Amino acid sequence: QPDLSKIAEEFVLKYPGSTVGDNVVLAAGDALMEQGKYDRASLSYQQLLAWFPTSAQAEEALYRLGLALDKLERKDSARIVYDNYFSRHPDGPHAPEVLIVTAGEALQVGRARDAINAYRTVNERFYYTSQAERARFDLARAYAAGGQLDSAIVHCQALLQKQRENLFRASDSLETLHLLGTLYQTKGERA
User: Fold this and answer.
1) pTM surpassing 0.85?
2) Contact, 61 vs 27, CB < 8 A?
């Protein structure tokens, strides 16, 4: 198979004034991602960011660099890239997803407060998106993980009401009911 990142690099060097060089490098990174060559893909995205920092494709390359690093299990590096993405593009198309990923990772390592803040941000800033729907449920889980059972219960009850009003999928309501039951049980055990 041809070395796509090398081909992209040769293209950029051969046609330095080309208006499509950033697209070529992004496409090479995407093809490498599809092939499961995440390390090589991350290099392509880094090259795009270095060679074309003001390109319209730079925002997309930054997001995809985070995805590649995530696939490589380089969670700390991915988090730095995602934080960078969100600070540069707080209203970008991937901002809600970036926040949800970083919140989930924060929750996994016991940083419930960071997760709560990120889920709240998604819920408040991107309220009408599909990501916010998921973030509302995950926010209840983050409250519970942070020991804020009353907040988690109130949040679940409000979420159930919203699910009933908007005729959410039955599985969403069942998932929320299950969490609510678990919260009540945990609260009862602590009382």
Assistant:
1) no
2) no
Give the model confidence (pLDDT) of 55-108 as tens digits. Answer: 989 999 999 999 999 999 998 999 999 999 999 999 999 999 999 999 999 999
User: What share of residues in the chain are helix, strand, coil (percent, to 5)?
Assistant: 80, 0, 20
Which amino acid makes up residue 145?
A
Estimate the crossing angle of helix 75-88 against helix 95-108, to 10 degrees: 140
Residues 107 and 120 sit within 8 Å (Cβ to Cβ): no
| Cα–Cα dist 57/74, whole Å | 23
What is the rounded distance in angstroms from the CA atom of residue 73 to the CA atom of residue 129? 28
Asked if the model's pLDDT at residue 159 lies above 90, the reply is no
Phi-psi map region of 148: left, alpha, beta (phi>0 left; psi -120 to 50 alpha)? beta
Q: What is the CA radius of gyration of the chain?
A: 21
Q: Chain-centre distance of CA 46, in angstroms?
A: 19
Q: Which parts of 72-169 fold into alpha helices (H)?
A: 75-88, 95-108, 112-125, 130-145, 149-165
